[in-house]
From TrEMBL:
The chain crosses the membrane at residues 12-33, 45-66, 73-93, 132-154, 166-193. InterPro entries: ECF_trnsprt_substrate-spec (IPR024529). Pfam families: ECF_trnsprt (PF12822). Keywords: Membrane, Transmembrane, Transmembrane helix. It comes from Stecheria intestinalis. GO terms for molecular function: transmembrane transporter activity. This is ECF transporter S component.
Length: 207
């Protein structure tokens, strides 16, 4: 990859980061529903991983995690201690595990989106098929990782704060907004990936 292609790739990466930040500071990024948030912020993270690769996907995921921690810190809800080490709710303190929950699943989302997309693309299918499967699978994994880590580190505290067990929340998330997020990702990401692929080929950075 020559210097011009590297510059174009970094420019596109900056664009994805800017979109992520814009979504974080507007209502379209996090939509609160009770103790949980429906989010659209996974979309630029997945697309970044697919278009630019796992490393850039993880970077965009870092911005997702940072925005999640900052939102929990400055606009706290009843379970914000799960995402911010600076928040105490009902005597429960956020800690290092809060940082892991905020950042870990989001960076994994971006990185594994790129890995899975490239594997499917190489062995089994078209841009649309690979992007659709990667988007759906990684959206589901992201939800399971976030809620699973909350279960591990804050299970009892979360249950007391939310008035419902983490296991019940996981089922509720998967049955409601989790399904919506998966459908949204599986519909939007392939269309965007297909639209961007010719440009990526011209730039010499197509996957």
């Amino acid at each position: 990859m020559n210097r011009s292609q590297k510059t174009q790739k970094l420019t596109l990466a900056a664009f994805f980061v800017a979109i992520e930040i814009l979504m974080a500071v507007t209502p379209i990024g996090f939509i609160p529903v009770g103790a949980i948030n429906i989010t659209t912020m996974h979309l630029p993270v997945i697309l970044s991983g697919i278009v630019l690769g796992p490393g850039f996907g993880a970077m965009t995921g870092f911005i997702f995690g940072l925005s999640s921690m900052l939102k929990a810190t400055f606009q706290p809800g009843i379970t914000s201690f799960c995402f911010s080490p600076f928040i105490t709710i009902g005597g429960v303190h956020g800690n290092f595990a809060s940082i892991l929950i905020a950042f870990g699943p989001r960076m994994f989302l971006g990185a594994f989106s790129g890995v899975l997309y490239r594997w499917i693309r190489k062995h089994h299918g078209s841009v649309v098929k690979a992007a659709s499967i990667s988007a759906a699978v990684n959206t589901l994994l992201h939800t399971l990782l976030v809620m699973g880590l909350i279960w591990v580190f804050f299970g009892t505290q979360y249950a007391n704060a939310a008035g419902i067990t983490v296991g019940a929340v996981i089922l509720a998330v998967l049955a409601s907004n989790g399904i919506l997020e998966i459908i949204l990702a599986a519909a939007v990401i392939p269309a965007l990936a297909r639209a961007l692929n010719p440009q990526m080929e011209r730039m010499g950075i197509a996957s």
